[in-house]
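Duplicate of #3305? Posting structure anyway:
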């Protein structure tokens, strides 16, 4: 893993963030105005993309996902119906991380980078910690891979009674 710092014109920020994301497994990009106030300073932790890993793109990962509103309802209900200080099961943390990733993706596509991206990243990191997953990719890529696998398992038709 390594850190990248870019100083650029504000009009180029979005293009550079997209290029970094396509070239590397990148975490959340934070940016600040430069000292002269005319440019942006971008900071991102990144890693090389592992070759041959099945990291699905968001469209593939969330093909079988219910609507964002439905998932928000499910995660809210699961959290609200649990007793205080109860650790919820992995499905809860996976579905929560996935819905936050989907919200962040929608914001990022609209040019909004901020709290939703950071929240999605934090939920993804929590899931990786819960799974004791090695850091071989960006946390949000891990969520997409895990969600796609989980959704395929959940969508299996039930076996007929024998």
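Output from current build:
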């Amino acid at each position: 893993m390594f850190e990248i710092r870019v100083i650029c014109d504000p009009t180029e920020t979005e293009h550079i963030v997209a290029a970094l994301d396509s070239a590397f497994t990148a975490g959340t990009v934070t940016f600040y105005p430069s000292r002269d106030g005319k440019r942006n300073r971008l900071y991102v932790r990144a890693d090389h993309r592992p070759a041959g890993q099945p990291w699905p793109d968001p469209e593939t990962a969330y093909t079988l996902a219910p609507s964002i509103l439905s998932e928000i309802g499910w995660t809210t209900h699961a959290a609200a119906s649990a007793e205080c200080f109860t650790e919820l099961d992995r499905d809860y943390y996976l579905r929560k991380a996935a819905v936050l990733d989907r919200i962040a993706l929608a914001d990022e596509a609209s040019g909004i980078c901020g709290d939703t991206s950071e929240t999605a990243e934090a939920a993804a990191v929590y899931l990786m910690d819960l799974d004791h997953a090695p850091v071989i990719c960006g946390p949000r890529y891990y969520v997409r891979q895990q969600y796609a696998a989980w959704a395929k398992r959940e969508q299996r038709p039930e076996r007929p009674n024998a």
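Confirmed duplicate; merging threads. Residues 82 and 89 are 11 Å apart (CA to CA). The chain is about 50% helix and 15% strand.
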